[in-house]
Amino acid sequence: MTASAPGIPELAADVVLWSAEESERGDRPLLVLLHGYGADERDLFALVPYLPAGFVVAAPRAPLAPPWPAPGYSWYPIEGLQSRDARSTTDAASALIAWLDLVAGDASAVGLLGFSQGAAVAIQALRLEPERFAFVVNLSGYATPGTLPRDPELVERKPPVFWGRGTRDDVIPAALVAHTTDWLPEHAELSGRVYPGLTHSVSEAELDDVRAFLEKQLEAPEAPDLPPPTPIG
């Protein structure tokens, strides 16, 4: 079992939303939704009706509260000196993995779908434990700069990753977008799209593409070891 990360509290077991009761989950694939900065577990859980029904969906709440008066919760600080340290993203991903150790149960596969900060945590978790995650959906997020010990495994494995972002997204710094553009194709089987006019948000067109990507993952019983999906767009 993974120990909780230093500086990041444990994820609370009583503030997670599930699409199915525990008795109904069995070995169905698990899709974990990671909300963005200043939101909570209800944010992405609203997407459940638009996602393939084959997944059990879990939406945990991030463990940190941003400084007042910012609303909601965050996975790692983005203010002060900690925001400049990639270790914060790694610690947040470690806390997520520790939570999964407790809740993933008999899930046949685990995939991550994150928005913005949640997407950064999803990619970092994939880098920490490449064999654990079948795929990642990165919505308006980024890959954290720096190297991690198991990055070479990703280069060999190339798990499926969907990356969607908008041309008018002015929240994620251009340098992080540029880094992610260079980093992801080397470490993942990348598909996705850049959406004209989209701001730091999710559009209906993007949701359609995400659903197609997720349906492709359901077709693969052991997604990490099978051919990746055909790129969208």
UniProtKB/TrEMBL annotation:
GO MF = hydrolase activity
Using the record's annotation, list all stretches that form the Phospholipase/carboxylesterase/thioesterase domain: 22-216
Keywords (alphabetical) are: Hydrolase
Family matches, as Pfam families: Abhydrolase_2
Is the keyword Hydrolase assigned to this protein? yes
SUPFAM superfamilies in UniProt:
alpha/beta-Hydrolases
This protein's record includes keyword Protease = no
The record, for InterPro entries, names: AB_hydrolase_fold, LYPA1-2/EST-like, PLipase/COase/thioEstase
Q: Which family does it belong to?
A: Belongs to the AB hydrolase superfamily. AB hydrolase 2 family.
Tell me what this protein is called: Esterase
Organism whose genome encodes this protein: Microbacterium rhizomatis
